[in-house]
Amino acid sequence: MKAVRLHDYHKQPVIEEVPDPALASPLDVIVRVGGAGVCRTDLHIIEGQWAGAMNPRLPYTLGHENAGWVQAVGSGVTNVAVGDTVILHPQPSCGQCLACRSGRDMGCAAGTFPGVSDQDGGMAEYVRTSARACVRLDATTEPAEVAALADAGLTAYHAVRKAIPLLPPGSTAVVQGAGGLGHIGIQVLAELTATRIIVVDRDPDALALAAELGAHSSVRSDGDNPVDAVLDLTGGQGADVVFDFVAEQGAESDAWSMTAAGGSLFVVGYGGELRIPTMALVGQEKNVVGNMVGTYSELVELMALAESGKVALHTRRYPLDAAAEAFEDLASNRVRGRAILVPSA
């Protein structure tokens, strides 16, 4: 089969032929990939930023946002069958450790992260996963339309889900970055809360899309000082909750400054460095909350929203052979929403 393989950091992945994945345990599931999301994490992997954290052995296949159709199942699999349409939780879990028993399966002590760690991901014609990672979808759902909800959508949903108690009617939320994750976060905020949504982005097209999706106000981050603009929109107070989907190149500092006293900064993007005076944390009682993926049950909830038309991905599709073009378009901010590789395209 064809697969997008990373051989060396700081070099573009290549398309090459590799053996089809095979069942190796009773709970294994082989999925024919219908769509694989292209994520900024993939760019960070290529740049070597995950080399120390996950230490994957090169070469391996990228792709951690995957959906498709069940091709084969192990002898112990009972929750899905051959032919089912599925989306895959990005971190297959064991179900036995304390994190799994507590419902925090993304924190599984024995979990894997296909496409990020050593296990091959889904930028290929087929991918091997676990029965515990499979969320069965309606047969009419097209995998390429929902694939990026497996991580980008799930991460945005996870952050908003945690923040709901902090966002009663009359509150204000800032979404910094209206791209692949942010445009999903806006929709989830609009659907699950009555908060006022302010979106900050440098791209006018992204801000126009944000308005269509439910944002009440917008701020150009490459124009006047975006922090001052948010403060003006909030009567000088700042936002009750700021969701930072960028968190690099100075955006992380802006996000902190946009957060009101007693408010919470939810950091979702990464790559930068947040420096905060401890006096500001103590004196203003601000909170900083990290967010990583989300739980299996949250993915089930998100897919219920997607299949009912409440949340929709805005995508640009590429055939698998055009993976290099997709990476370049994402790195150059030419993708509105999410780039999706479609093996059969």
UniProtKB/TrEMBL annotation:
Keyword terms: Metal-binding, Oxidoreductase, Zinc
| Domain called Enoyl reductase (ER): residue spans | 8-341
**Molecular function, one GO term:** zinc ion binding
In its keyword annotation, does this UniProt entry include Metal-binding? yes
Cite a single Pfam family from the UniProt record. ADH_zinc_N
What is the similarity comment for this entry? Belongs to the zinc-containing alcohol dehydrogenase family.
Q: What is this protein called?
A: Alcohol dehydrogenase catalytic domain-containing protein
What is the protein's species of origin?
Answer: Amycolatopsis pithecellobii
